[in-house]
Amino acid sequence: MSEPVTSPEPVTSPEPVTARPESTRTGPGRLLVAVYGLFALSATARAGVQIATKFHHAPVAYLLSALAGVVYIIATVTLTNGSVTARRIAVLSCSVELVGVLAVGTWSIADKASFPDATVWSGYGSGYGFVPLVLPVFGLLWLRYWAKRAGSLRSGTAAGRRDQRGVRRSARADTAVSQPKPAMMLAR
């Protein structure tokens, strides 16, 4: 008779591993992504219908609405992805959006003849409760928060470094330990 074969026990690490969210789509970022997604869908659909049915009536306004839709799509996708590269693209997208809202908002107030129909960004987004004006500001603030968080975790500051017991260590203590001692001090 042969003995029953037992499977080896799973090996676990002695330190508990806590998963930190590394994505912009956590916490308040979920709401931000949802609002961007809603604006991406509505601006793109609105521009598509307007361009297909009455482009000759207000071509500038409809093309600007299409541009806004593309910017919202890019912001939605990059905020959802959350990688370092995606966050950089999201910063660019939110910045373009903010500049667009301010430029188109000013242009639409100064030259009403160019905008017989409103765009998402005309009047600084007044047709949408000024959400297009504040959305890129919140997006940029959220991305700034993540940039600082990622920087502190990479650079090993007190917020990100822990020793084997899970106790926080300062960057100053790390450099003091890692610097070599002069030969004269070792000879004593």
Q: What structural keywords apply?
A:
6 helices; mainly alpha; elongated; about 190 residues; single chain
Give a verbal description of the structure.
With about 190 residues, the protein is mostly helical. The chain has a domain at about 35-150. Helices cover about 60% and strands about 0% of the residues. Helix 1 (about 30-55) packs across helix 4 (about 130-155) and helix 3 runs antiparallel to helix 4 (about 130-155). The radius of gyration is 26 Å and the shape is elongated. Residues about 15-20 and about 170-180 have low confidence and may be disordered.
Overall helicity: 55-70%
Indicate the mean pLDDT.
80
* Shape descriptor: elongated
Terminal CA distance: 68 Å
Which sheet architecture does the biggest sheet show? none
The helix-strand sequence is HHHHHH
Helix vs. strand class: mainly alpha
Low-confidence stretches: 16-20, 171-178
Strand content: under 5%
**Radius of gyration of CA atoms, rounded to a whole number:** 26 Å
Q: Compute the number of strand runs.
A: 0
Number of helices: 6
